[in-house]
Amino acid sequence: MMARFGTSATPVVCSGTGGDKMSPLITIIEPPGHAMTINCLRSRKLHLDGMVHPDFYRVERTLRDQLSRYPGGAAVCVYYRGECVADLWGGARDVDNTPWTRDTMAPSFSTTKGVAATLLHIYADRGLVDYDAPVARYWPEFAQAGKAEITVRQVLAHQSGLYHIRQMIDHIDRLLDWKHMIAVIERTAPIHEPGTRTGYHGLTFGFLVGEILQRVSGRKFATLVRQELARPLGLDGLFIGAPASAIPRAASLIFPESTRRLSRTSLGSRLESGAAGLSRWLARVGVDTDLASLFDALAPHGVSTFEFGSAQTLRASIPAANGLFTARSLARLYALLANGGELDGVRLLSAQTLHEATQVQPPTGRLAVIPFDMRWRLGYHGVFTTRGTPRRAFGHFGFGGSGAWADPQRQLAVALIVNSGLGSPFGDLRTARISGAALASARRAGSSRGSLSLAGG
């Protein structure tokens, strides 16, 4: 049977200590008869709702622990062998402690890239896009400024040399204007010879992939997401360019005090000086990288005051950074990828195309932006967890703590969305811990006698 949470609750009440005034109601949704110790969080109620298969209890425990330690809320969904085995959500969706509900979505930053890449693979599967063809075959104006030979594969593998967003635009608000961004990319020369270096295209990746798709299909990118991904799989929480009707479901981004202090100073100058210092340290220990490129790729002018969670931003299409998702929709999409391109009788990709799309693309030259090998596939990266690195797994994690991935070897798919923390995947281990819990659970379930039996909701 599925273990259900939220149907019966035992309140756990924390009182303040010292000079801090704390909320007298911090409630943990707990099945009757269970006891637990939690870390009290000031002025916040904590709840957890949803369902989980007993074999995946570690996922629920890990999420519960994270909700007790971080402000805001989160949702997790896990598919195993084509079935949903965990669908959990909890915490607060805004600073007023409005409870996170089943349908709450969260801005998910670079988790968006994996969704955009999947869409392109569908068109490659239909023979409408060739990975090794020049981008200019589909987008003729792209050939300007020495880009005529850049291939679709190089774009997907972050090897096109077009990551230097800070040099391309005068203000981050330009990201909201698709036509402007496409015109800028068309006239921009690569910062290095394409194919000679691997450098994470943090904000340009989506426009590169998205414009190829728009040229091939004749449709707007947001429409493609709806018609090619959401509709066939029955996903009600998958948007890159959300309609007005979806915005009320979006959780507000909650910034820790340390992040607010940083934004009140100069995020750009902090990134610049931090990148230079880290680059010098890495050089001393023998790691050859260029962290000044981190600043170039991820800190366009105005980034410290840009509202990634505003309605204006969420309604735009920024296919590298502004996806609005539920964990359930992300996990279902990645479950299709974990199951060879088909789920519940719906096939979006052939096994052959999926195999090619998920082969590791060897890094070329000196690494840029991210100073270590991400094991890039075509639009996805390798997966790291606290329980190991599954060799065949692929997906995309995002700034802020979200992430989604698939492991074809275990037919496992995992998705996490959050609305607080705002850290890189390398400094925020929530996704890695949830992923580790899911991986350990799948290993346990896979080693059990008989097949996984699902009952209940």
Write structural notes for this entry.
- There is one protein chain.
- The protein is α+β, with helices and mostly antiparallel strands and 457 residues long.
- The chain has a domain at 111-254 and 301-324 and 341-368: DD-peptidase/beta-lactamase superfamily (Beta-lactamase, 3-Layer(aba) Sandwich), CATH 3.40.710.
- Helices cover 32% and strands 12% of the residues.
- The chain has helices spanning 57-69, 111-125, 152-156, 165-168, 178-187, 205-217, 221-233, 257-264, 267-284, 292-298, 311-315, 327-338, 351-357, 430-447; strands at 3-5, 48-52, 73-80, 83-91, 106-107, 238-239, 289-290, 324-325, 342-343, 346-347, 367-368, 394-397, 403-407, 412-418.
- The strands form 4 sheets. It has a 7-stranded antiparallel sheet with strand order 1-2-4-3-14-13-12, with helices on both faces.
- It starts with a strand and ends in a 10-residue tail after the last helix.
- The model is unreliable at 4-44, 258-274 and 449-457 (pLDDT under 50).
- Architecture (CATH level 2) name of the domain at 111-254 and 301-324 and 341-368: 3-Layer(aba) Sandwich
Main β-sheet, spatial strand arrangement: 1-2-4-3-14-13-12
CATH superfamily caption of the domain at 111-254 and 301-324 and 341-368: DD-peptidase/beta-lactamase superfamily
Overall pLDDT: 85
What is the global morphology? globular
Largest sheet descriptor:
7 strands, antiparallel
Could you estimate the helical fraction of the residues in percent?
A: 25-40%
Gap from first CA to last CA: 9 Å
Q: What is the CATH topology descriptor of the domain at 111-254 and 301-324 and 341-368?
A: Beta-lactamase
Rg is: 22 Å
The CATH first-level class of the domain at 111-254 and 301-324 and 341-368 comes to Alpha Beta
Query: Could you say which structural class the secondary elements and strand pairing correspond to?
Result: alpha+beta
Q: Please, how many helices?
A: 14
Sequence stretches where pLDDT stays below 50 over 5 or more residues:
4-44, 258-274, 449-457
Tell me the total number of β-strands. Answer: 14
Quote the beta fraction. 5-15%
